[in-house]
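User: quick one
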Amino acid sequence: MQNNSSHCDQKFQVRKLEISDKSKGFIELLQQLSICDSVSDKRFAERFEAISSYGDDHLVCVIEDDVSGKIIATGSVFIEKKFLRNCGKVGHIEDVVVDSCARGMQLGKKIIEFLTNHAYSMGCYKVILDCSNENKAFYEKCGYKQKEIQMVKYFI
Amino acid sequence: MQNNSSHCDQKFQVRKLEISDKSKGFIELLQQLSICDSVSDKRFAERFEAISSYGDDHLVCVIEDDVSGKIIATGSVFIEKKFLRNCGKVGHIEDVVVDSCARGMQLGKKIIEFLTNHAYSMGCYKVILDCSNENKAFYEKCGYKQKEIQMVKYFI
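Assistant: Done. Structure below.
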């Protein structure tokens, strides 16, 4: 049992997004979450560089399936610097998705733990995220609690 | 009526935060929103520079009362760069507060309009914010709609 668990942990390790992940189905995975047309290599590279320029203040992580070579889970966190809370920092988790074919393997939990730990290591006093009522129970299992409501204004 | 309105608009203009606003009660204003002990000038300057280094990707705005010389309203927005929505951008509005002595003058609406317009001008496809149920009606008047729920994990 211990060995199986270790094997599973080794198999599905969370790591930072790499530019080569575009060819491993990263965009197709995001399409399971929201509107995401195919993106040119140039545009992807530019956005990758723009996000990377924030260093540890904006982290996109992934889980790759070593067997298929596909990206099967992802999530991101960015660190907001505030004046309140004595010039505190807040982690914002965004765009968490697990491949519909890879559900039930706790990959979402791994992603959230990775992002939450990153925010903690960056000195945040809290991490926040928005989710549907449907996903509330999942985040509660990850140690999150409901607090406020999310309001949105769309431009397009 | 037209003149009064113009006068009021001139009097309560929204502008970017300046480093000298610390001495105009900016921190005391934030204390009306959340925990915010007094901050040293050095720490304030460091955080001001850190936020300024993001340029238009992180904007803190204020309204100054020309009569008292005090900051009486503030809010911030930062621009998150995503891969989904065809490498889209999302504006995140945070830390909106109006001085309890300056309520009823539509200053909150001015702040939200300023931040929303900034997100639009930066090419965001949407702007989001979290608020209490109590403040939902105010944001609806600003053109926002409830969408999801906010989950939080506190480290301290």
